[in-house]
Amino acid sequence: MVTGKSTILDVARIAGVSTATVSRALAHPDRVQQATRDRVMSAVRKTGYRVNPVARNLRTQRTNVILVLAPNLANTFFSRILSAVTEVAASHGFGVLIADSAPLGDHDLDVMDLSGDGRADGIILLDGALDPLRVTNTDLPLVMACEWIEDSTLPTIAIDNVQGARLAVEHLSALNHHRIAHIAGPVGNVLSTARHDGWRSAMQALDHRIEQNDYFAGDFTLGSGVSAARQWLAQPADQRATAVFCASDECAMGFIGHVTRQGLRVPDDVSVVGFDDIDLSEHFLPSLTTIHQPRRRMGARAAETVIRLIRHENTAGADAAPLPVELVVRGSTARR
């Protein structure tokens, strides 16, 4: 056991390697053979050696920090994405700075305010509503996840939202629902547009007519689900859609909660499908049928991609194909 403040020389001596190999094993473990890496890590534990992050960053001109921008940190949807980003980043020696990209007071959050002064090496964007000129006006590596910016060439990790909406409609149609309403997301949001397009194209493919009262404006929130439920309930009972596809799980929960308080039952009186499969969906009453997004996988791939960009490694194909979605059938849908 080395006593006192250990150095990289102590680690190298115990591991039987050069100091350069120790540095490489700690900074870029993927570039060192497993046996050598194991010896170095064993020596690190024996000596109690700790890397000096300030000195390391001065040498590499890096902060070893990834900035993640999310449009609404209060939205529980982002929890698994952020958790995966943090875990992958930590495994590569990076920290994570998380910021809300929504407007702060009377001032928009400027990406450069957080990244332009050297506080981050790369950025993961979860917000497709940011002005492309503001987003791309930086020389830091940028990766989009979940949402995307139209006509942008940024690497993007996302799902097939159109296909997810089609799965929802096809499921409801198979349960003999032909009037399937849709509660949309925010106007102009890329996810809202894609899920609306998927609902409409699936309805047309199945020869199901879309009535004027089958579309409800929304914004992904519980409140928008409540508002849509009020509008749906205001229609004559025999003219209401028998099923509702919601652009988010929170919206679906708001809808279910309000119609339940008004004495109706889900799915007996109306079937409801959400989108996202947030953690609460399985435990809601009734448990929510929804479209599952692989959020942890999305966050992990985004982190891996931005780290490879930071290290100037090949990222070809990292965002080539959308991540798969799947329908999770639970208690909020039933045969008509």
TrEMBL record:
PROSITE patterns: HTH_LACI_1 (PS00356), HTH_LACI_2 (PS50932). The keyword Glycoprotein does not apply. It holds the Pfam family Peripla_BP_3. Keywords: DNA-binding, Transcription, Transcription regulation. It comes from the Bacteria. Residues 6-60 form the HTH lacI-type domain. One of its GO terms (molecular function) is DNA-binding transcription factor activity. The keyword Repeat does not apply. PANTHER family: HTH-TYPE TRANSCRIPTIONAL REGULATOR GALS, LACI-RELATED TRANSCRIPTIONAL REPRESSOR. This is LacI family transcriptional regulator, repressor for deo operon, udp, cdd, tsx, nupC, and nupG.
